[in-house]
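Summary for the steering committee. One of the milestones for this cycle was to obtain a three-dimensional model of the protein with zinc ion bound, which we needed before selecting residues for the alanine scan. The sequence and ligand used are listed below.
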Amino acid sequence: MDNIILISAAGAGKGTQAKLLKEKYNLTNISVGELFRSIAKTGGELGKHIAELQKAGVLIEDKLTLEVVLDRLEKPDCANGFILDGYPRNLEQAKMFDEAVKGTFKEVSTVILLEVPKEILMQRITGRVNCSSCGEIYNEYFDEFKKPGYCNKCDGDLYKRDDDNEESFNRRYNTFMTTVQDAIQYYKEKGILHVVDASISKDYTFSQIQKIIEGKND
Ligand SMILES: [Zn+2]
């Protein structure tokens, strides 16, 4: 059984890899961001509290985050192993989580860090354009266009999301790197950190992840 933590900055393809892992190894994929969004929608006491914090742009407390994650891991679909995406985000969360799951089936065996150079991440994020008509997503740097500014599929207008700009990217990237760095070091010292080059292609990235997981089970 594998319990995996996936760490990467936005744009490194974490969601895609989580999906591939889930399909190949029958693991349950838990995106903590999505988990919070779905709880916020339920409208219960916890849901209301979370919705308020999100609305105010305030980070959810470490202790509450831990409780929500642990509660989710109790569900039967996690018994065969799980992938945690978007948690832990800092050293404090990493330590709290470790302490709470020690000696249980929830203990994490593998931490995978998807590494992509900052310049490439920047191009992936700031080059993103969306079709206003069919919703197709392209990248100005990596895709070719039959007619610049228009969708290859349906000829609809392409537009860029407001927060896909350089300034916003830099802010998000720097915040992420500063807070997650100590957690990465912590897992490295525990001997369970694996760094994967995620800058080439999604297939290449996944082949490296498979080697890590299958090498471990020998
Ligand atoms: Zn289109």
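Key point for the committee: Residues 131, 133-134, 136, 151, 153-154, 156 surround zinc ion (CB under 6 Å).
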